[in-house]
From TrEMBL, chain A:
Its EC number is 6.4.1.2. SUPFAM superfamilies: Single hybrid motif. Keywords: Biotin, Ligase. It holds the Pfam family Biotin_lipoyl. GO terms for molecular function: acetyl-CoA carboxylase activity. Residues 1-70 form the Lipoyl-binding domain. This is Acetyl-CoA carboxylase biotin carboxyl carrier protein subunit. It is an enzyme of class 6 (ligase). It comes from the Bacteria.
From TrEMBL, chain B:
It is an enzyme of class 6 (ligase). SMART domains: Biotin_carb_C. InterPro entries: ATP-grasp (IPR011761), BC-like_N (IPR005481), Biotin_carboxylase_complex (IPR050856), Biotin_carboxylation_dom (IPR011764), Biotin_COase_C (IPR005482), CPAse_ATP-bd (IPR005479), PreATP-grasp_dom_sf (IPR016185), Rudment_hybrid_motif (IPR011054). The lineage of its organism: Bacteria, Bacillati, Bacillota, Bacilli, Bacillales. Its EC number is 6.3.4.14. It comes from Cytobacillus dafuensis. GO terms for molecular function: ATP binding; biotin carboxylase activity; metal ion binding. Residues 1-444 form the Biotin carboxylation domain. PROSITE patterns: ATP_GRASP (PS50975), BC (PS50979), CPSASE_1 (PS00866), CPSASE_2 (PS00867). This is biotin carboxylase.
Length: 70, 447
């Protein structure tokens, strides 16, 4: 299992993947908003999405898990 | 007015509080839990917590704000900028509650808030607009056809957008196709409508705007221009007045056009007409901001006027304090928006400000939102303070600003102050030779 972690505190603006999707390294999986700035979160690895830990509108802290890959 | 509620936070709330106190007006601050220790909360006559940190749970809660306004029997509500400042429904609700909304009529806010409707209104008034789509679209086929007809590059924009959010430059059809759905999604998330439109992208453009002011007695004046071309991610970072680029003739034409635009909507209170200017000084209407703007201190420094005071006077039906012929511009002013962000990646840098000190000398004005010991949270915009420097000439202002940033002490979080050193010592900036692409062309920031 590989976890995609939030690098900063912010609000989830968009989740661009669904469970079962295959993602590639560098692919944007989430869009966060922090201090009125849109910050894309990219996957560091390739893999299949097995779990999405956040919903649009959630507030996340630095280090929180956003998406889990297999 | 005896008592005003400020429906905003940070430096603009404090800015409004200061003028109110100078005018002998009591102030009511409303704040979120995250802002409980903020400067503006401490400085207001009265302060009330209105909810949790996220803006939709506090600063955007019209009903809660109005409940406090009524309980406190305020005469007026000042919306500042951002949040509810350009929300026609908010302005209507304030008026309906029998309270003065310190801003233009709700109808004007509504008309100018929609980029497509405002373009049409300006075209009808004979104001030049950027070549672009007549109507909004929500299909890629339509957007692609429009872009093809006007030629790439184009800007894809959210119809209800502003503040640089929901705007993407597209170099070709592939780029347009790639950005279309995400721009629509952002437009929907931020502005409630997924309608977007396509506009011709003007190369090496400048962003110059004219401050206007109208009263309820039919008088409208301009307060000169501000050049806001130094931008990152379509958001202003440095603004100055006078524009170092426009000729005297170009400025006069722009003032006349701004007044024409304001008259077309019978504008009242403070407003700004934003123009995009090409290399030959041809200018086109971009949008009208129906509120006080972040960069208003630049205008205050060159004119010696207090625009918040003017807003309050006009809102209580008084005539504008000066006629156009009595309004003069003197010297040169430059504003720097000090942001809590990494100076290299430009990503947000929330945290505790351990130390925030500057040297005040003649011509230096700092409008802070925070002080030493303040916490900058991730919930709001990253602006810590505005540093506005006035000199007799542009060169004087540049020298003073360099000295100011040399002596500025800010510790505990990262800021964009290092960017200002780079801008101020850049020969092209010193010559006034820059466009909206300046920061990316100079590789000060990534595109």
């Amino acid at each position: 299992m590989k976890e995609i972690i939030s690098s900063m505190a912010g609000t989830v603006l968009n989740v661009m993947v669904e469970a079962g999707d295959e993602v590639t390294a560098g692919q944007e999986v989430c869009m966060l908003e922090s201090m009125k700035m849109e910050i894309p979160v990219e996957s560091q690895d390739a893999g299949k999405v097995v779990d999405i830990k956040v919903n649009i509108g959630d507030f996340v802290n630095e280090g929180d898990v956003l998406v889990v890959l297999e | 007015m005896q008592k005003i509620l400020i429906a905003n936070r940070g430096e603009i709330a404090l800015r409004i509080i200061n003028t109110c106190h100078e005018m002998g007006i009591e102030t009511v601050a409303v704040y979120s839990e995250a802002d409980k220790d903020s400067l503006f909360v401490k400085k207001a006559t009265y302060a009330f917590c209105i909810g949790e940190a996220p803006v939709n749970k506090s600063y955007l809660k019209t009903d809660v704000i109005l409940e406090i306004a009524k309980k406190e029997a305020v005469d007026g509500i000042h919306p500042g900028y951002g949040f509810n400042s350009e929300n026609a429904d908010f302005a209507r609700a304030v008026k309906k509650a029998g309270i003065i909304f310190i801003g233009p009529d709700p109808e004007t806010i509504e008309l100018m808030g929609d980029k497509i409707v405002s373009r049409r209104t300006m075209m009808a008034a004979g104001v030049p607009v950027v070549p672009g789509s007549e109507d909004g679209t929500s299909t890629i086929e339509e957007a692609s056809k429009l872009a093809e007809s006007m030629g790439y590059p184009v800007m894809l924009k959210a119809s209800g957008g502003g503040g640089g959010i929901g705007m993407v430059r597209c170099e070709n059809e592939q780029a347009l196709a790639k950005s279309f759905e995400s721009t629509k999604a952002r437009a929907k998330a931020y502005f409630g409508s997924d309608e977007v439109f396509v506009e011709k992208y003007i190369e090496n453009a400048r962003h110059v705007e004219v401050q206007i002011f109208g009263d309820h007695h039919g008088q409208i004046v301009h307060l000169f221009e501000r050049d806001c071309s130094i931008q990152r991610r379509h958001q202003k970072v440095v603004e100055e007045s006078p524009s170092p680029f426009l000729s005297e003739n170009g400025k006069r034409k722009m003032y006349d056009t701004a007044l024409q635009a304001a008259a077309a909507v019978n504008y009242k209170n403070a407003g700004t007409i934003e123009f995009i200017v090409d290399e030959k000084e041809n200018f086109y209407f971009l949008e009208m901001n129906t509120r006080l703007q972040v960069e208003h201190p630049v205008t205050e420094q060159i004119t010696g006027l207090d625009l918040v005071k003017w807003q309050i006077l006009v809102a209580q039906d008084e005539k504008l304090p000066l006629l156009q012929t009595d309004i003069k511009s003197s010297g040169h002013s430059i504003e720097f928006r000090l942001y809590a962000e990494d100076p290299i990646s430009f990503l947000p840098s929330p945290g505790k400000i351990e130390l925030f000190e500057w040297n005040s000398f003649h011509g230096v004005r700092v409008d802070p939102g925070y002080e030493s010991g303040s916490i900058v949270t991730p919930f709001y915009d990253p602006m810590i303070a505005k540093c506005i420097i006035h000199g007799e000439t542009r060169n004087d202002a540049i020298v003073k600003a360099s000295e100011f940033f040399n002596e500025l002490k800010i510790e505990g979080i990262k800021t964009n102050a290092p960017l200002f050193y780079e801008i101020l010592k850049d020969p092209e900036f010193q010559k006034g030779n820059y466009s909206t692409s300046f920061l990316t062309q100079k590789s000060f920031i990534a595109d």
